[in-house]
């Protein structure tokens, strides 16, 4: 947790920006092809071997953390401010979604591709 992924073959450390790029490719490819297995495969820029970006189950921990914090903050604000405007609830929720987006790369793992059980999750 809170560690950027490394290449499973050569151990090259991916910088924050590069992880976001891999993640972006993942999403783009998923929309482009209906083949889930191919969509998530990436080639290491260092050793040219293929790996797969995997966000589950680690990202679920992040989702839960964000949801709990979000609800906690909302309940706390509702309890101390009696005339709280509804719009603030959306602003807070939006900020937590932004936080999720920023933290997500730290919860992505790069895995070797298992040819025998070549499925994503
Ligand atoms: Zn590599």
Protein described:
The protein is mainly alpha-helical. It has one domain. The chain is about 50% helix and about 10% strand. It has helices spanning about 15-30, 35-40, 60-80, 85-105, and strands spanning about 40-45, 50-55, 110. Helix 3 (about 60-80) runs antiparallel to helix 4. The structure holds zinc ion.
User: SSE string, helix = H, strand = E?
Assistant: HHEEHHE
Give the names of the bound compounds: zinc ion
State the shape: elongated
Largest sheet: 3 strands, antiparallel
CA gyration radius, whole angstroms: 18 Å
Helix content: 40-55%
Uncertain runs are none
How far apart are the first and last residues' alpha carbons, in Å? Answer: 19 Å
Structural domain tally: 1
Number of strands: 3
Q: Count the helices. How many?
A: 4
* Class of secondary structure makeup: mainly alpha
Report the average pLDDT across residues: 88
Strand order of the largest sheet: 1-2-3
What proportion strand? Answer: 5-15%
Q: Key terms for this structure?
A:
single chain, binds zinc ion, 10% strand, 121 residues, mainly alpha
Summary, kept brief:
With 121 residues, this protein is mainly alpha-helical. The chain has helices spanning 16-32, 36-39, 58-80, 86-103; strands at 41-43, 50-54, 109-112. The chain has one domain.
Write the layout of secondary structure elements.
Blueprint: H1 16-32, H2 36-39, E1 41-43, E2 50-54, H3 58-80, H4 86-103, E3 109-112
Antiparallel strand pairs: 1-2, 2-3
């Amino acid at each position: 947790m809170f560690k950027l992924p490394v290449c499973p073959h050569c151990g090259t450390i991916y910088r924050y920006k590069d992880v976001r790029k891999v993640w972006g490719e993942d999403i783009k490819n998923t929309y482009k092809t209906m083949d889930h297995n191919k969509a998530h495969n990436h080639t290491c820029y260092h050793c040219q071997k293929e790996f797969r970006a995997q966000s589950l189950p680690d990202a679920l921990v992040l989702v839960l953390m964000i949801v709990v914090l979000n609800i906690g903050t909302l309940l706390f604000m509702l309890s101390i401010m009696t005339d709280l405007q509804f719009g603030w609830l959306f602003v807070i929720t939006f900020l937590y979604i932004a936080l999720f987006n920023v933290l997500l790369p730290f919860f992505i793992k790069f895995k070797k591709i298992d040819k025998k059980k070549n499925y994503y999750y």
